[in-house]
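ok trying this again, last paste got cut off
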Amino acid sequence: MPILLKQLFRIVRDGYCGVCLFIVVCTTFPGTASAHLILAQRGTLNLVDGKAMLMLSVPVSAFQRVDDDADGRLSIGELKAHWADLEEQASKGIRLEDEHGVRPLRQLTLNPTSPDDAPTAPVSQIVVLAEFVLDASPSPLRFSTRLFGQFDSERTLAIAVSRDTDTQLLLLSPERPSRILFPSASAVFADYLQEGIRHILSGFDHLLFLLVVLAAGWGWRQVLIALTCFTIGHSITLAISSWGNFAVPSTLVEPAIAATIVAMAGFDWQVRRKKLAPSSRLRYALVFGCSLIHGMGLASSFGELGLDGTHRLPSLAGFNVGIELGQIAFASAALLLMAALRAWRGKAALEIVLHYASVTAMAIGFAWFVQRML
C-alpha cells in the first residue's frame, strides 16, 4: 500500500489528475463500486400432479394506486381499502401458458408479511400464493409476470422451479419478464450466452480491466491471446465455484478486482516511465492471474442466475462464451478507435492517450478499492 500511494503522489507531482479523478469517482459514481448486487425478491414454482403451485414475494411498489401516503409500505387501513385492487393486480400480473393458451388460475391468496415482533406494522412485501391448472398433455410452459417494484433493488424476481428431480432458476426483470420452463439444452445455452454478453458489457470493473490490457498497445493477435487467457482464467474459478460449491465472500472479491485494475495499470505505467520492454509472456501471465480473481466475481453473478439443474454444462458454457464474445466486441471497438487515432494524429499522439488511459484507470481502480473496502 505505501508503494501504491507513493506512485499516485508521483503521478500528481508530474501534473496528472489521479487524485481529482479519485474524488470525482467517489462522489459521482458510488453505485459502480458494487458490481455484483444480490436482489431480494424470491419465489418458488412447483409442478406436480397436474398443477403448478406458485409462492412469490412481491414488493408493495409493484402495485398501483394502493400506497396512499407513498411511503413504500401498506398500513392496515390501506390494505383494507385496497384489498380488491391488490387481488386483481396480482391475478393479472402472473401468467402461466403453454401451446394451448393461458393456464387457468384456480386459487389466489395474498399474505401481507410484517415483522414477527410487530404484526401490526406496515408491510413492504406481499406473498402471492397461486395455483394453476396444467393441461393433461405435457407441453412447454412459459411463466411471465409484471409484478416488479419501482426501486432498483426490487427490479428482479428470482423463482426456483422444480418438477420431479429437475430444477431451474428463473431470473425475471422488466426487460425480460417471461421465461420458458425447462427449455432444451440449446435454448439454455442461448439464454446463458445472452446473459454472459449482458453481464460483461454492463460490468464496468471488468471492462476497465480490459481497457487497461488494451492500453498496453498490443496488436490484434496479442489482444486475442490476452483475452483468451482472461477467459480461461475466469472459466476455471467459475467452474470450481459452480460445481465445487466454492465461494469467496464478495467483501474480499470486490476489493480484489479493483486491486487488479490498479496493479495492471501501475505495471504499464512503470513500464512506460522506465522505458522497459517486458516479454509478452509476462503480460499474459499477469492477465491470467488477475482473471482468476475476476472469475470469483463472475461466479457471484452466475450464482444469481443459477446453474441450470438439467443442463449444467450448456448453462456454464453459454455464460463463458457470452463473456468471450462481449470481450471481443468491446476490444474490437477500442482497437478500431486506437487505429483511427493513430491514422489521424500519429503514433506519438496514441502513446500519450494510452499513457493517460493507464493513469486514469489506476486512479479509478484505487477509488473503487477504497469504496469497496469501506
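PB: full thing came through this time. Residues 2-33+194-373 form one domain.
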